[in-house]
Every structure is written in C-alpha cells, then in structure tokens.
Amino acid sequence: MTLPLRLAAIAAILPAFLLGSFLYSLPAYLRQRKTAPVALVLGDGPVRIATIAEAIAWLRGRGLPGLELVREAQRLVAAKMIYSRRNNWDTAERAFASGAGYCQQSAGALLLILRGLDLEARMVQCVRNEFPPRDLHEYRTAGGTCGHAWLRVRVAGEEFDVCPGDPANEPGKIHFRILGRVTPYRGLARVFGHFGSALLNTWWDRRARRAAGLPPAAPRTAAPGATESPPAAPGS
Fold it and tell me: What gap in Å lies between CA 77 and CA 81, rounded to an integer?
C-alpha cells in the first residue's frame, strides 16, 4: 500500500476508533451528575470537597508553607480521585468532581489547584515509564512500561516531581521509574497524548476484562469507584 493510501486509511479508521472510545466513556460521563462528594480524611478530619474551587479554598485555609501546601494538595487529589480507564473524555475539572480519572486528568486537576494557590507548577510527560503491578477496576494488571503525565513543581528555587497517582507519593517521590526523556506536556504533545490515551485506555480496559473472564463492556450502573479497588498507580 502506498503512503497516500495508508494515510487515507488512517484518516478513515481513526475517527471510528475515537468515536468508539467516546461511547465507551459515555456512561461514566453521564453518571458524574449523580455522584455525591465523598468524605475525604484530610488534615484534622473528614471534609467534603466536590470541585477544584472548593479544594483551593480549603487548602488556602490550612495556612501551610510552600512545600507542605504542595504535599497536602497532592494528598487531596490522590484521596479524591481513583484511577480510571473509563471516563477518558472528561476535562480535569469534571474528572475531579466525579472522583475518577487517568493520569492526565488527575495531574491536570492538581495543576489547576496549585496554580490557584499561586504555586509554580507545570505538567510534563515521558513516553516510557515502568509501573508495578496493581489492582484496577475489577481486575489486576501486571504493570509494565507505558507513557505517563505528572507535574514538576518549583518551591524555593528547587523543582520536585509531583504525581497524585499513588497515595504514598510525596513531592520528590514517585511510584514509577522514568526510563526516557521528560518533555513538557503542552501543544501537540497534549493533543496527541489525550487522543492516544483515550484509545489505549479503552483498549486496555476491554482486553483486561476479557482476560479476567468478564464481559468486554464496562459496568454501566455503579458510580465511579463504588465497586472498584482502592486508588492505584496509573498505567498511562
């Protein structure tokens, strides 16, 4: 097949795959309106935070210095958002409100929070990172190598890797091993990263469900996190 024909085939097939991924994520998108804020154990006790704005207001009220404020914001997002392969088309704000999302959504939510607190942060990515095995949704994955997005935050002249993808993470401590070059997550990288992750998450989720002896389609009745495992390390 010549190059023009290959490009034409990709141009014809890709929209169909993207539409399939969107339809796969549609139940989670529609459920978000029915999801009530979950009580998070933060600071001195449980709090209920539904939106990015509420998270910023609560964190401002903590009166913490720079690095401690970053750590508390990271813990908040990690507690609020379970990792999910099933609401790939939500914005970071909507994913935060629903309490579920993949790496770009949780890192994006944390980025909005940190910038709302007047902290210097940026999103970065690497296409090759090594992750440990983990429980996810109704199955267990073997871990392995894949792309990932997280934050780098500058406090007092020092820059820290910050990732809300695992509750045990701290500023400067991440749950994955970087195997390649770290680049900014913006522009075309952000566009292709979003579409690529949506397709891969849908494919990975369906494949893992088949391997576990489950129907290919994800459950459509439970709210995100209601019947799933506790927060786990992301894989994309």
Answer: 6
Taking the alpha carbons of 219, 222, 228, 230 in that order, is the dihedral positive or negative? positive
Q: Where are the beta strands (DSSP E) in the chain?
A: 39-42, 45-48, 82-83, 100-101, 120-131, 134-136, 139-141, 144-155, 158-162, 177-178, 183-184
Secondary structure string (H, E, C) spanning 158-222: EEEEECCCCCCCECCECCCEECCCCEECCHHHHHHHHHHHHHHHHHHHHHHHHHCCCCCCCCCCC
pLDDT digits (tens, 9 = 90+) for 93-124: 999 999 999 999 999 999 999 999 999 999 99
Q: What does DSSP assign to residue 104?
A: H
Res. 227 pLDDT band, cuts 50 70 90: very low
Domain extents in the chain: 19-211
Tokens at residue 119, please?
């902290």
For residues 99 and 37, what is the distance between their CA atoms, to the nearest angstrom?
Answer: 8
Contacts of 36 by beta carbon, 8 Å cutoff, 6+ apart? none
pLDDT at residue 236, as a whole number: 47
At 32 the pLDDT is: 59
Instruction: Give the tokens for residue 179.
Output: 């195997």
Strands (E), 2-88: 39-42, 45-48, 82-83
Fold classified for 19-211 = C8orf32 fold (3.10.620)
147: how many CB neighbours lie within 10 A of its CB? 18
Residue for token pair 């290919």: 216
Alpha carbon 172 to its chain centroid, in Å, reads 18
